[in-house]
Amino acid sequence: MGLMDTVTLLILGVMPALVIIGGLKDLTSMKIPNWISGALVLGFFPAALVVGLSPMTVAMHAGVAALALVVGAGMFALRWIGGGDAKLMAASCLWLGVAGSGMFLLYTGLMGGLFCLALMLARSWSRPFLAGAPQWVVQLMEPRGDIPYGVAIAAGALLAYPVSPLLAAFIAG
Predict the structure, then answer these.
(1) Residue 164: pLDDT above 70?
(2) Do the Cβ atoms of 25 and 81 come closer than 8 Å?
(3) Residues 9 and 50 sit within 8 Å (Cβ to Cβ)
(4) pTM higher than 0.85 for the full model?
(5) Which residues contact 158 (CB under 8 A, 6 or more apart)?
(6) Do 72 and 137 contact (CB within 8 A), yes or no?
(7) CA–CA distance, 152 with 4 (Å, rounded to integer)
(8) Would you call 145 helix, strand, or coil by DSSP?
(9) How many Å apart are CA 137 and CA 132, to the nearest integer?
């Protein structure tokens, strides 16, 4: 593997690293900082450049991300998800493009359902064991507390990333 391949892999590793950070931040604070979604957006363009995506493909990725942001804003307005969730979904769709975004939404929905079920179960039996637990754990285990959906978004993005045109272009190149 040459130096350029190593640099390309590091650039392509930005998306997985940032969605993991986003999921962990949401899990521990119920917030996804704007810098994470911003860094995802900024990191996409060098990634697209180094793997040689065409301008039309980049534009399609941007269109999918814009659509995801509009849908996410609607979901936020309905109080289904948080604002950070909407931005993280849109930024993830930028990296995943048309090819990966459908799988991303499917995986996010599946992981979100499984995570919600697991969290509901944990909340139903965890109360006696929370003495001395970190504050974020106590908050997470509130019986009617919020669900940090960034965890599901991160899982969905990681599961869908292998079908991203970015990775396909890297493998083909």
Answers:
(1) yes
(2) no
(3) no
(4) yes
(5) 16, 19, 20
(6) no
(7) 33
(8) coil
(9) 10
